[in-house]
Amino acid sequence: MKRKLLPFLMLFSALLTLTSCLSSEEDTTVYYDDTAITSFKLGTLNQKVVTTNSDQTTTTSKTTVDCSGYAFYINQATREIYNPDSLPYGVDASKVICTISSKNSGTVTIKSLTSDSLRYYSNADSIDFTQPRQFTVYSNSGNYSRTYTIRVNVHQQQGGIFGWDNLGTDETLAALADMKALATEDRLYVFGNLNGEARIYSRPLTKAGTFARVSPNIALPVDVSRNVIAMGNVLYTLRDGQLMRSSDAASWTAVGTVSLQQLLGATDSRMYAYGTDGSLKTSTDGTQWTDETLLDDRSMLPVTDLNLCYLPSKTNKYTNQVILIGNRTVATDAAAMVWGTVEENAEGSEHQPWSHYIFTGDNQHQAPHLLNLKVIAYNGGLLAMGGAGQGGSQEKAFAQFYRSIDRGITWHNDSLYVLPAGFASSETSFALAVDRQQFIWIVAGGTGQLWRGRLTDLGWKKEDTVFTE
After folding, report:
1. Distance from C-alpha of 95 to C-alpha of 150, rounded to nearest angstrom
2. Residue pair 245/235 in contact by the 8 Å Cβ criterion
3. Average pLDDT over every residue of 441-456
4. Can you tell me the distance from the alpha carbon of 434 to that of 411, in angstroms, rounded to the nearest whole number?
5. 62: how many CB neighbours lie within 10 A of its CB?
6. Checking CA distances to 135, which of 18, 48, 226, 244 falls within 20 to 30 Å?
7. Maximum separation of any 2 CA atoms in the chain, in Å
8. Is 438 in a helix, a strand, or coil?
């Protein structure tokens, strides 16, 4: 009997010893001094949707939109939290359900909109984010806190809409012949001629600006509008075999003597021109010009209504797609002449040759041969407009914008881009330009109408997404 009880007593003794050891340990809780808001997320929000019907009336409806996929960036240095990609137009920011996480389980509070009082945040709360809100997170030790400003950005304009502003008329501009418009950082310039004299007018790019005549310090050729380009904030033109430059169209200085007959245009890195020998040339500073390589017949180069546009690469900041488009004087041409090259500006890179976009019969959407053809780069593509079709083209004057999204190969009517209602202009004298804020400007000869328009999406502010603390 003693042998059977001995193992049991030894086991029971061990259990008592273990219990004694466990009961002797003290319970401890760690309170952290540091904390921070580490994430901010939205859920499903209400949205008001306005639909334009075929008869131009509007219908308003309500729906919900899942906003959980919109990323909120946290700048811990400035204590700001916001979404760089704004929520869709019509989202109700007055009743927002959000989820906030904090470091080390810090306690999050929100400041009242009407006083300095604070209340505890709950992820079940409906919060008014129609204006920035202040949130304070407290460490669980109570010794530390951080206050953040949280903005829930909602688009205030409906995306995908192009609208025009009628900026009135100007009788002086109405009388100009051979107009050309160029936009620099903060001004719009219009070049032309009146009664055999070169004329220049400029105005600020603001909606409320007005045109004023610019008096240059030198006599400019009467056809200066056909031979002036802009590279950044600097204007260039040719005069008596010299390349001239100016930052205000009033004070012109000589860059140097050049063997050029026609300036074509510029990118952010290079200027392009026709040499006196008919070659296509390029320069980075206007002093040294080099011949470009052409892969196709030089006779296919445009000689009138010249437009040089460029589209920056989306993957390489040193690369541009450059397009030269204009007309020849060949009576049978039904289409404009389009040439292109890839401009490489990185150190050690090779500039690519130019190619003529040779069209086959399969392409029924070539750029039409229009009188006074004007082309700009816009929203990742090209937009063209002009007077009546010339040569083999049967297009009507100012019938539409022609848009190319494949860098000049095919051109289509895009219902998003339409000329302003009530637009009227001389076919032989009008100007088209785009500024750095992505406003399109049209100056109409004969009537003096001035129009400014922009795709709503291109005016939206781009928020920072990378921070250093």
Report:
1. 15
2. yes
3. 97
4. 19
5. 10
6. 48
7. 134
8. coil
